[in-house]
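Collaborator request log, item 7. Partner lab (contact: R.S.) asked for a structural prediction of MYND-type domain-containing protein to inform their binding assays.
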Amino acid sequence: LSTPPKQTQLSWCQESMVSTVGYDDSRWRWVACRKHFLPGACHTCRKGPPKTYSQKPSNPVPLDKSHLGSLIYARCTSICSLLQGNRWPPNESRKFCKAMAVEPGKNVFTLFNTKSSTKNDDAWANQRKQVVDAAKMKLGRELELMEKEMLTYVRVCEECREADPTILTGCPHCHSVFYCSDTHAVIDSANHLEWCDKYLLSLQCDIFQNIRGLPYPDVFPFLEINDNYNPLEGSMLNLIKPEADDSEDFFNANLDPITAMLSSRLTFPISLLYGMEQLEEALMYNLEDGDIALKVSTITQLTVHIVGASLREETSIASRCWEYIFHHLPDLRSLHLVFVGPELNKDFSSYLFDDKIDLEEFFKLCNECNKKDCKLTYELEQMNYHHYCELAQYKEPDIIIAYHAGVHAYESWKPSLGTMMKNCNKPVMFTARTKHMAEKSLKAIQKHVDIKVIIGIQKNPYYGLRPFRQARREDGSSLFFNNRYIYVVKGHSKS
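Returned to partner:
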């Protein structure tokens, strides 16, 4: 994706983000999404800083005060020079802004003295939760997503959590991490240098979504149709950019937000394929009585149960990424996907499509798939998995997968886990955003049910390349990637 000509009216981030040069997007749909809080961008017009440094500096450089200034009252966010005459956020945020101020120029985090009261990540997470709860009580209502994020992704020193906005400066490359002094920037430099480009990409993706929305292509632009079965090789980066050398430097220098955002949805079907191929190899040398050898290359019919599904998986349906399974498996003719989860919205099409969209026409498979008479069907069940298995329309799956299953965090998983592992010959695949979450979930699964680990926790080379922010730092960063880790288990006994 080449960079379009510079436009003086746009900030550095918008110059390359509002255009999809390099893609034929004439049939793409752009779905408006909820606005996110961006600590390094203008809260009102969503513009980023006017420039970014081409290299990641080890020392902080003050933000351009002529472009981004802090709101006088809450000092939790920024506004650009075009709006500083008013120095107020939009009307609906004014009460929130006042509620968060303890006095002009200081906010609640300054009052709490986060520098000395949050010595570890758990204490810091708990304090932010307390502030969110207090804000809800003070305002007498639930917080909007933007407001909650302002109290979650707080502008504090990355090293010591100093909250005084008058001494904080931001990294001039990613505009996402802040420091109270040169000394603390140097202390954190080794860790930040590893993640700085990814923070920048995350910011670029968020600004793009705020300006234009989420891209939904008619066909994924960088995927080929296989006439003969070839196992997956390499990584997501190799798949979508064949010229890639799969190095960290290539990732940092050549990945554009459009490709990153599309990969974050494409990771769902490809992670499934990757897990199936790894499972076939694992079972080839370790078959037990009753196990069914998996022959991925010759599969003609496939039923997949996607457990714990939510809006994340629903939107992947609208992106048409699941069709790629047909493109990768030439013999496959029927694919039935069952999405099961209490957070599902069975009427998801109402907020992804307008009345002008012909849904039957839109969900048609490509010409090559139609020539082979391929059939792709979806089923959405808004309930827990153990309840779904009691329904008359229940159909035995070939494989079960749970994306980002926070088994350790929700007791509601316990009865469903027993049902998922009931058939000891059916593999169950799990993914996680971080290694820490994968380890905690696997430990919780082993506590609740008797299982055998077929494929241990490992990095998934086909994870989504779009970085997302998270409230708690894990694996050395406050960013995560969709399906970063993967593991496969099965029930160990029929007890």
